Here is the input.
Amino acid sequence: MTPQPNPYVADLEPYEPGRPIADVAKEHGLLPNQIAKLASNENPLGASPRALQAIRDGLAHTHLYPDGAGLDLRDAIAKKHGLTRDHVVLGCGSNEIIEFCYHAYTQPGQGRVLASAYAFAVYGLMARLFGISFEEVPDRDFHHDLAGFSARLGGDVRLVFLASPNNPTGTRIPNAELTAFVQKFPAGPLLVLDEAYHEFIPEPPPSVHWVKEGRPVVVLRTFSKVQGLAGLRIGYGLARPDIAAVLQKSRQPFNTSAPAQAAALAALADTDHVRKTVELTHAGLERIHAFLKKMNLRFVPGTANFVMVEVNDGDQVFRALQKLGLIVRPLRSYRLPGWIRISIGTPEQMERLERALPDVLPARK
Here is the structure.
C-alpha cells in the first residue's frame, strides 16, 4: 500500500520562484550573459566585494561544521541595532524565521493567522503546511488596511504578518499608521514585521525600538536583497530574548552555512556597497516610473527595488520578454494575472526593458 502523505502537504501548491537564467537561456537558444533577470528583486551589482573575499578566505575550512550558534554574526547584528546577542535569531534566509514562528506559536487546527491580500506567498503557504486557518485582510488599493487587521484581531489569532515594503505590490505602511497599530496591538498574538526591503526606504519605522521596548514583535531582515547574498540564503530575526529563545528551539542545528555567515558578517560592514545599491535602485525607480507614465500603463509606484505593472496579460508578456532575454515575474500565482513585477536592474538592463516592453504588450481592450 502506498504511504499517504499528510493532507496539508498533499494539497499544497508549492512556491513559484522566478525562472533561473540557465533554464531560460537553454530554452530560447541564448547565452546566459545575454539574459537580464529582472524577476526576483536581486541586487544587480552583485554581492559586496568584502563578502566575496570572506567566502574565499574560508574555503580551506569547509571540512568543518559552521558555528551552530552563529555567535560572531549575531554579535555584529546585535551591535548594529543596539541589541544583545540574545535578541538575534539566524535563518536560512528570513523565510526560515517565518517557519520558526509557525513551529513555535501555532498548532494544527487551532487559531488563525492574518496577512494582507497580495502579500508574500510564503505566509499562506506555511499556514497551509502547518494546518492552521489563514485569513487575508483585503487591501486598500494594494496597501495594507490596518483598520481591517484590527477588526479581525481576536483571542484565537496566533500570528499577524505585516510586510513593509510589501512584496509583490511594492507599497509601504506609513510610519504613523504602523506605530499606532503596534502600540495598540493586543496581548496574545505574535506580530511579525517583514522588513526584507528595509534598507531601500527613507525614514524607516522604529521597529528595532519596539523590540527594545519588549513588544511581542519579530522583525525580519535579510542579506538577500541590498547586500546581494541571495544565493547563500542568510537572514535574521530580531525579537525580545524570551521570544528569540523560543524561535531558537525551532531551528535545525547548523541551519546557516559557514560561507553564508562569513559573507554576511563582511557585508554588514560594507556600508559603501549598500549605499551604491540604494542609489542605483532609487535612480532606477525614478526612471521606470517615468517610462511607465509615458507609456500610459497603470503601475504601483515602488518603494523597494521593484515595481508592479498592469499589462493586461502577465503570462503573455512574461513569455514574450523571455524570448528577448529578459526575465520578469508574472503574478498569476498572486491572483493578479494581468500584472507583472519588474526588478530594478542596471541602467543597461533597464534600457533593454524599455526598448522591448512596448512591442510585447497585448492590445488593450
User: Anything to note?
Assistant: The mean pLDDT is 95. Residues 57 and 256 are 17 Å apart (CA to CA). DSSP finds 14 helices and 13 strands in the chain. Residues 7-46+272-360 form a domain with the Aspartate Aminotransferase, domain 1 fold (CATH 3.90.1150.10).
